[in-house]
Write a structure and sequence with these properties.
Elements lengths: L2 E4 H4 L4 E4 L6 E8 L9 E7 L4 E2 L8 E8 L1 E3 L2 E3 L3 E5 L8 E3 L5 E7 L10 H5 L11 E5 L10 E5 L11 E6 L4 E3 L9 E12 L2 E4 L2 E5 L7 E15 L20 E4 L5 E3 L34 E3 L3
Antiparallel strand pairs: 1-18, 2-3, 3-4, 4-11, 5-10, 6-9, 6-11, 7-8, 7-10, 9-12, 13-14, 14-19, 15-19, 16-17, 16-18, 16-19, 20-21, 20-22
Length: 308
Amino acid sequence: MPTVIAYDDAKVNQHSRKSRNGTSINVSTPFLGKRGNPNLPLASLATFPPGRVSTPHFHDVPQFQIMIDGKGKMGRHDIKTNSVHFSRPYTPYGPFTSTDDSSLTCLIIRSRPDTGAQHDPEAIAALNRMPDRNPWQVTHDVSLPEMRSGNVALQPVPELDDDGVATTYALRMRPGATVLTPDPTVGEGLFVVVQKGSLIHENKEAKALTLVYVSNQEQAFEIRAGSEGLEGLIVRFPNPVTQSAGSAKGAQPGAKSWHCTLCSFVYDEAVGLPEEGIAPGTRWEDVPADWTCPDCAADKSGFERGDS
């Protein structure tokens, strides 16, 4: 049956630990799962202090990171409340940082237990020798849908689709409204993340922040909004991908492009990177030699020609 757990219940397991360099304190609140248990996914709320930096790293399982509060950067992408990051297994990303003037609270969800973050540069470099690896990641700011009519607004976020499979939905509900989740059997299960308001489950009201986990062996879950309505996200893990390791998402047909062999970020010469001062039409050889991948910090030597 679905698992429903609210922050008020999860916080009894809250703990603090020093950062890897010992200069700051991170606070973690586990909601679900335990490393070494193959039957449960992992879900944890992590709060990082201002100025915290996590060097580029990867995990061996798929992962969602939902920004609950604060500001920071994922690689060179600005992130804020309701920014969502999704990464496939063995896809390096980062640095992952909180700004100097703001802490950052992030909900980390993994489809199954993993072996922990791999920060070692040698381990990251070795990814290119891993057979059948299919890296990809995306970071996107999610806006909640407007409530124009009716009692429920449930809207997929196409920017976060993984090869056409909807992975993220934004949800807004009026008090007492009900709606079924998307089909959890399509992938590796799904999570409902109640960020504002509450939901009613087994005649009890679970206030935000509340998580609902529905495995891929179960039917769609009926969400019932509480007395203040409900706002939040639904994230569904796609099926394990089967494409060849050489496919780089994001390249435009016929474009002259270059892709990062570690994380599959695509540099399209026709588009450039105006936000980084690289104008449309800038040839790869004219991109500054010290430029690095905005998703995983790999240098130019880690890119290969990827014309489609």
